[in-house]
Write a structure and sequence with these properties.
CATH architecture of the domain at 129-253: 2-Layer Sandwich
Number of strands: 20
Structural class: alpha/beta
CATH class of the domain at 129-253: Alpha Beta
CATH topology of the domain at 129-253: Transcription Regulator spoIIAA
Length: about 450
């Protein structure tokens, strides 16, 4: 049997796409390997949301060239950089065998066959028409033994923010019909999945026959499902109906990732974000009133063209005002075909060293706030959904609270259990403690052997 290795960069959509690639490859009698050096097929599933992620992809391709030379491995690139660069990537990397976009995962077996049998260098990056698009569906049997799983409910984005390349690499918004979503969730629950995360580039703009709030409520009612999460959202889609869903359904996890991007109204307008800071805060305050204790995380871009020191200070002030549980913050990098890249010279580029200095100041503030949140948990008992052994100590267990805080703890509860953990220690990034009670046992016994998972590098790494 041939072995494959998938190196995934970027967001949870890319992680989900890599899982679907793995399922397609398993049907071709490929088996996963945790080491690229042993692979007969290497796929880089790429991200283009930040320039740094592209650079890391090219660096990884250089390393995998030696594997191709020594083993004759097939080397391919998928994801957003593939969609962005298309056949130019084959010219840039002469030892690359194939390139395929996010809409073409279903064609992966055909692409590999063409490379193997016809000795072609293949490019498959055409967008699939909305009427013909088939959403990748998690294979329930390959998810058996997992505690948490992604379920795709929509793809693409219609917002065209001036900094964002997603509309060019993922296309226009397409929503999946809600019966398909609920059937997939039910199949996953049937093999022991306890938590599902509904994903899409702009997930709360979902239009698959019911509203997104209704989809969340119906998903929470599927027998066996304990928690429902989702990502990623746009503030203008945080409706009163969605807020009400958080109030009435405790299985909707009390965690909301709500990207604000900046604390200046002027910069938000240049970013083509259709809200002001006060409008953002109004929606956020309604959400917190409906679900007290909800954890809020966000995305922030530092050093957007034209950003003054005073406007950066507004972002610092907003961070202090909201008190985010965590944030994913980045320095601005121009992306091809985006409005900000085309007008950067007119608006005023920010020197790189200034952007980095501002980012470090922002992240220092956020680390303090995150530490205050986690320290406030010390001495408390928290509910944890057990995901498996700790990655840091195989004798301990690992899981997450409903607020999505990670917990490493002493205990013996199997994966899929819901337990109470007494928190004894905390860092800004995680909690640690001891299991004191088992609230619910797993519905399906966990797999005795943990299968290798594709290597993932977040976009911000």
């Amino acid at each position: 049997m041939k072995r494959y290795f998938i190196h995934t960069f970027g967001c949870q959509m890319n992680v989900n796409d890599s899982l679907r690639m793995s399922e397609a490859l398993s049907k071709m009698s490929y088996v996963p390997t945790p080491e690229a050096d042993n692979a007969d097929l290497i796929i880089l599933n790429t991200c283009s949301i930040r320039e740094k992620a592209e650079d890391k992809m090219l660096s990884a391709l250089g390393r995998y060239r030696a594997v191709k030379a020594s083993r004759g491995a097939i080397l391919g690139v998928g994801g957003c950089v593939a969609q962005q660069e298309k056949d130019k990537l084959l010219k840039k990397v002469p030892y690359l065998d194939f390139v395929f976009g996010p809409d073409n995962i279903a064609k992966l077996p055909e692409v590999i066959a063409r490379v193997q049998d016809a000795r072609e260098r293949v490019v498959e990056t055409a967008f699939v028409d909305s009427e013909e698009y088939v959403f990748p569906r998690a294979d329930a049997e390959t998810s058996r033994g997992k505690v948490s799983e992604f379920v795709t409910v929509m793809k693409g984005c219609d917002n065209v923010c001036s900094f964002c390349i997603v509309p060019h690499t993922r296309g226009r918004e397409v929503s999946r019909n809600f019966p398909e979503v609920l059937n997939e969730v039910a199949d996953l629950a049937g093999v022991g999945v306890r938590e599902v995360t509904l994903i899409g580039q702009n997930v709360n703009s979902y239009q698959g026959g019911i509203s997104f709030a209704q989809l969340l409520l119906r998903t929470a009612e599927v027998p066996g499902i304990e928690r429902v999460r989702f990502t990623t959202s746009h503030p203008h889609d945080l409706s009163d109906e969605l807020i009400e869903a958080f109030r009435v359904q405790p299985k909707i996890a009390p965690h909301f990732h709500l990207p604000v991007q900046c604390g200046s109204d002027r910069i938000l307008k240049m970013m083509r974000r259709d809200y002001t800071v006060e409008q953002y805060m109004e929606r956020l305050e309604k959400l917190r009133a409906a679900r007290p204790g909800i954890a809020i995380t966000t995305d922030i871009i530092v050093g957007f063209p034209g950003e003054t020191e005073e406007e950066f200070e507004m972002t610092l002030q907003l961070t202090e005002r909201v008190k985010y549980d965590n944030q994913f913050s980045f320095v601005y990098s121009p992306r091809p075909k985006t409005g900000a890249a085309l007008r950067e010279k007119d608006w005023g580029p920010i020197p790189h060293e200034v952007k980095v200095a501002r980012l470090e100041r922002l992240q220092k503030v956020q680390r303090r706030i995150s530490g205050e949140y986690t320290q406030s948990q010390v001495g408390l008992d928290v509910e944890v959904l057990v995901e498996g052994p700790s990655r840091y100590d195989a004798t301990k267990r690992f899981g997450r609270t409903p607020e999505n805080r990670t917990v490493n703890f002493e205990g013996d509860a199997p994966a899929g259990s819901v337990v109470t953990v007494h928190v004894e220690r905390a860092t800004p990034n995680q909690l640690a403690g001891k299991q004191v009670a088992v609230l619910k046992a797993p519905t399906v016994a966990p797999l005795p052997v943990e299968l290798p998972v594709p290597l993932h590098v977040p976009a911000e790494a």
